[in-house]
Structure prediction request, 959 residues.
Amino acid sequence: MNFIEELKKGLHTGFINFQKASLEDYQPSLLINDRQEEKRVLTTLIKELNECDAFYFSVAFITNSGIASIINILKELEERGVKGKIIASQYQNFTQPEALRRLKALSNIELKIVTEDNFHAKSYIFRKGTRFTLIIGSSNLTQNALSYNKEWNLKVSSAEDGDLLKYTMKEFNRTFESAIAVTDQWLADYEILYREQYKASRQVVYDVQTTKAILPNKMQLEALEALEKLRSEGKDKALLISATGTGKTYFSAFDAKRVNPKRLLFVVHRENITRASLRSYKRIFGRDVTMGILSGSNKDYEARFLFSTIQTLSKDYILEQFKPDHFDYIVIDEVHRSGSSSYEKILNYFKPKFLLGMSATPERTDGYDIYKTFDYNIAYEIRLNKALEEQMLCPFHYYGVSELEINGEVIDEKTAFNHLVCDERVERIIDKAKLYGCDHGRVKGLVFCSGVKEAKELSEQFNRRGYQTVALDGSSSENEREEAIERLEKDTPEGDYLDYIFTVDIFNEGVDIPSINQIIMLRPTQSAIVFVQQLGRGLRKSEGKEYVVVIDFIGNYANNFLVPIALYGDRSFNKDHLRKLMSNGSCSIPGVSTVNFDRITKERIYEAINKSNMATKKALVEEYKLLKFKLGRIPMMMDFILHGSRDPFAFVEYSGSYYQFVASVEQTLGTSLSAVEKAHLEFYSKELGSGKRIEELMLLEGLIRDGELASSQLRQLIKEAYGYDVSEATIESSIRYLNGDFFKKQDQEKYAKSQSILVEVESFKMTEGLKSDLKNPDFKTYLLDLIAYGIDRFNKTYTLEAYEKGFIRYQKYSRKDVCRILNWESDESSTMYGYRIKYNTCPIFVTYHKQDDISESTKYEDCFINKKQFSWMTRSGVTTESRETIAIRDHNKTGLRIALFVKKSDGEGSDFYYMGDVEPMAISQTTIKNDKGEDKPIVNILFDMAHSVPDHLYDYLTQ
Prediction:
């Protein structure tokens, strides 16, 4: 590739004509932070760092949060010996000394500081041989500037002799030479100055906060209005689902203030929470209301607002102190516990005017229906991602790091105890804890272990190395826990303080330690709910706390696929969704939080996604029942979509149709459809539900709605909805598909030869068979639901810009899908293999990472040359004079359509990413060896793609 020529093309696209095709890497671009478009300045910064052989930063401000956002790649560059120079500024003493100290600790970085007040430059320069990338704009090296703020940064590429680059580097070097080296002594002096200024500024903030009234935030106001609406409709109970740390207690106090109950009861499961809740209520109500505690050591029966532990309240002699209607407002905290006998006892006893249940995780897998307890009245939902987006929680920087390998074996669920606590593992944990650190000040950490014995031994190991730690478990008393929390929360490492608390699961919920700034996870992720609970321990906001560090040690655990499910809040269990989230990294996380995996860890998670069966009968039934409990009725496929639950196509793949799955769970439904109706519904479900083409779905929906549909109407519907014109060939193909003619004989027999469409002159009608099926109300209900789901699935991936004659760029298709969308007369997927030329089309299928056990003559060296060019090999035995080579060469004369499909490996299934239609740029004869070592002729073709492959997909496929 000629860099100068590609650079010229990129500059032409950027500055002269946007329609000029070129590599995106060399196009000038504006870097911004945009949540909706999943764009962050940080993403480009990390990409450029990863590809460079030298870097030069010049920024006014550097904070710990900025370093936390890029520490993984900085450490990797140090290990690779890639050198960098960084200039920071002392302007307004904003740059954090700890951030400078972390940079100074990296041996590959020369760090200097400008002490004059007039330095406010922000530039990032990267060298790759004779090529350079310049990013100049408004972003400092802080988490907000890199991920959240409205920032404008111009990115341009340059050759080493470019005038702009020469002048920029000259200015950088001049500033660097005149700046002061950051020495230990300079840092010590600056830290004193910084701390004094920080302390003064925090005092101002504290003075403002202590005099400021606490008011509901935006989401709490919406939830309060929802509660008012429920009460106006005569409802006397409701459930609030709200992520840990989002202010559930304050919310209940705000609502109580609106209702103004004569007597209020607040029920919790631990005594320390009664005191914390009472303090929160006092901040809202002041001294206007008498408040008291009912627990083992307190019996304030007469208080107007009573805060009680469930253990005390559920005792008979305590309950007898109150009439059933004594409290007109009752709040149940952590209501997902309400299935226990003690909770049921008080819920059955008291008859309040209003009952409010609150939980971060109401989903229960033991069959208890919490939603029924509250008459299915869900006032509001604030899940983790939404709370992060609304900045209700403290941001986090998550680091997935690879577990230790001992004697050639990576730690997994079966690892012996002595390996879990060996010196090498302890040292690795400490090294990573030091590397990732915390926001500022001292570390206040929670360590979650896989067992009590491990927690105790690791605590002792840390203590031997000079740390102050304790291990707590279920046998630890309330006083021991409170004392440990108090010691952990001390701001200075003086006296009887703690660095870490080691535990297994007693701190998963119901514990308020706002100042936690580091969480270490040393156990396999067995549940996404538990993962979020443990993550949530660090997400509560606290004065002066900027972010929390989460260090997750990931071994060879079977459930590693749960990590992205928990982190990104994607409950679809769709493997392609999870792969995309993993490759997108931090862009799919709201706010300034980041997600970082080392290479080995990322591979382990991808492997777990590929290998795991995420749709077992047990898992599907569990998800089905959870949503049924929530709705109070049998859910339909679209209910799973509307409630952000599992992708319901998993039920289709498991049972043939969603109806069949429901019938297997709900025995009363099993006989409502005949065998033929079930077969027909299975046909529509399996063959239309994937939403790969919209024409069949729109046609079928229109026929069911109107009974008849003109060809012109169908064209108009699609034109209005999607902006493109449907070809006659596509309409004919859709009819063949809906009538079953496209399918192989065995599939036709399996689906009871479902015939749907009668074709008349320029119009379509339903066959008598489809009319008969639709007379059954259950068939019609489930079919319309399936169609709605298929359309929704298509809509989620469709954009007119990415649509290319049936395919959507970078979406996945099977060989069978390709036959159908290319309008082939029948399904020829079983004999298509690598490519085939037919009907003036040539689909090409490439498995990028091929298995080792295939024959030598099929180990084709297919690869991306760059993000816009692909090198492809024909089958062996082909020459430049072969008919298929000539057809590809002469495609412009014949109109042959060449479509490229690529998948990473066989491990991810049978679907391929559509990379776009491609243009042959060069054709050359070469050879490949067969199993006998003999040379066989083969043709190499260099294809050009009209669009550059997105970074996340390119990296996923090629790495």
